[in-house]
Design a protein that fits this description.
The protein is of the alpha/beta class. It has 11 helices and 10 strands.
Length: about 290
């Protein structure tokens, strides 16, 4: 009995959080943010200071390498961003460089040089202009294909006799190159159109995964090895497609720490809200306890 208890305690200790992967989106202020995707630049700078001083900030490839080698990480934190907002280059990267901290930005490639903002941001801009709530329209648009959604948004703008604003939020191809310059910020894939992958037929999933990888590898001039599931949504088939496409890791939106049992293709992440430094420190400490 004593041996059994000791073995259980040992397994529990082994499953203790070794690393926390943080998930950001936009480092900005001043626009509608119902999904809490924006972190104020001043808060971001404060957060990076506490991460640098209180934890060991590592790159996503370092997390991947430790898991593959069966090595333990200690109080490690990795920084990631989803979607590919322009402010990741213009605002976040200079702050990361100031603190010497690595990060990975997962890019939805279909918006680069498309002339359109991410559909959820365009919807919020329309609703602000029209003075209407976004919930019902969001549910309608979310169920559409990428092409249907763009057509519906064009119709919405026409209905209020207002020209759709010029795109200002997603990274362009040139900006993606600048983002990757220097090697501190790595670029990962986040599909072409940001769908719920598990709802698509396998060939369509394969296109979303492989086309985003090919585009980004060509733009940044290096092999893209990390992937993030849009909405954190994937199936067994999705995971197999990501692996067969040559990716080495895939990130989810499941809020949990990385342990010795974590799969490299189901990496959990903690979404960071517009917290002050103390709130972020408490959250990370809780995950690593």
């Amino acid at each position: 009995m004593i041996r059994l208890i000791r073995n259980r305690l040992r397994r529990r200790q082994q499953r203790k959080g070794q690393a926390a992967i943080l998930m950001y989106h936009s480092i900005s202020t001043g626009r509608p943010d119902p999904w809490r995707l924006c972190v104020d630049p001043d808060h971001f700078a404060e957060q990076l200071r506490v991460l640098r001083d209180r934890f060991r900030v590592v790159s996503l490839p370092e997390v991947r390498g430790a898991l593959a080698a069966g090595e333990r990480l200690s109080r490690a934190v990795a920084i990631t961003f989803d979607d590919g907002y322009r402010d990741n280059l213009l605002v976040a990267k200079p702050i990361l460089e100031e603190h010497g901290l690595p990060a990975t930005v997962f890019v939805t490639t279909g918006y680069a040089d498309s002339g359109r903002d991410f559909w959820w941001d365009e919807l919020e801009a329309f609703c602000a202009s029209a003075g209407v709530a976004s919930r019902d329209l969001w549910q309608e648009l979310q169920a559409m294909t990428h092409e249907e959604r763009a057509e519906r948004l064009d119709g919405l703008w026409a209905s209020i006799h207002t020209q759709r604003p010029a795109s200002s939020l997603p990274l362009s191809a040139d900006e993606l190159q600048r983002l990757a310059d220097g090697g501190l910020v790595a670029v990962g894939a986040h599909t072409v159109t940001h769908p719920h992958l598990s709802s698509l037929p396998v060939p369509a999933q394969r296109h979303e995964i492989e086309a985003s990888k090919a585009y980004l590898s060509g733009v940044v001039g290096r092999l893209v090895q990390d992937f993030s599931y849009p909405h954190g949504d994937f199936s067994r088939e999705t995971r197999a497609l990501v692996r067969s496409a040559g990716f080495e890791t895939a990130c989810t939106t499941h809020a949990a720490p990385v342990t010795d049992e974590t799969s490299r293709f189901e990496l959990p992440r903690i979404q960071v809200a517009n917290w002050d430094a103390e709130a972020l420190e408490r959250e990370v400490e809780r995950r690593l306890a």
